[in-house]
Amino acid sequence: GAVVSQHPSWVICKSGTSVKIECRSLDFQATTMFWYRQFPKQSLMLMATSNEGSKATYEQGVEKDKFLINHASLTLSTLTVTSAHPEDSSFYICSAPGQGASYEQYFGPGTRLTVT
Amino acid sequence: GENVEQHPSTLSVQEGDSAVIKCTYSDSASNYFPWYKQELGKRPQLIIDIRSNVGEKKDQRIAVTLNKTAKHFSLHITETQPEDSAVYFCAAQSGGYQKVTFGTGTKLQVIP
Description:
- Chain A is an all-beta fold.
- Chain A contains no helices and eleven strands.
- In chain A, the strands form two sheets. In chain A, strands 2, 4, 5, 6, 9, 10 and 11 form a seven-stranded mixed beta sheet that branches. In chain A, strands 1-3-8-7 form a four-stranded antiparallel beta sheet, with no helix packed on it.
- The termini of chain A are far apart.
- Chain B contains no helices and eleven strands.
- In chain B, strands 2, 4, 5, 9, 10 and 11 form a six-stranded mixed beta sheet that branches. A five-stranded antiparallel beta sheet of chain B has the order 1-3-8-7-6, with no helix packed on it.
- Chain B is globular and about 40 Å long.
- Chain A binds chain B through residues 32, 34, 42-46, 49, 91, 93, 95, 97-98, 101-105, 107-110, 112, and chain B through 32, 34, 41-44, 46, 49, 51, 89, 93, 95-105.
């Protein structure tokens, strides 16, 4: 089956620094990937759609200059949280759509970000 | 955009009883409705899904029903077991390669 990985699985950074999260499709190509954020005891909220070879599409209220997305290849999308603050602490999850007729999304294992 | 409402937010049932979670969606363009189980700190796990051209789907103890006219869909878990305890999310999607809009989640507790 389709596998999506994320790295790192958890990261602690200091306020004001930047942190990069990688999302990889391991056995399939993904021209589109999605980035979600999940705060404790809340649902997953879409932050942005990552498109290979073009600019990401951000959801309303998500600062594109703060959450930089780069989809440089058909198997890799990165999310960089710039000038991180404690309120950015969250669980970040990426997903990639299935292939062919499948509508299923394949989720990465998530990255727990803690900003101190 | 799509809005998915889910209830109840918490649900406690005795082991062996049934559990029902209900969702409504707003966008008539949505045509794929997956249900996810999420354990603490883990990724959402697809447990069952249904497309809009189907009214009901069953997989062992889990079933999903869809009323496209009313924009309602529901998850039914029968013969619940303690390992069914988790947070469940309904979701809606308007086809392949499209973003997933999640419901607010239901924390299910199965009491042994």
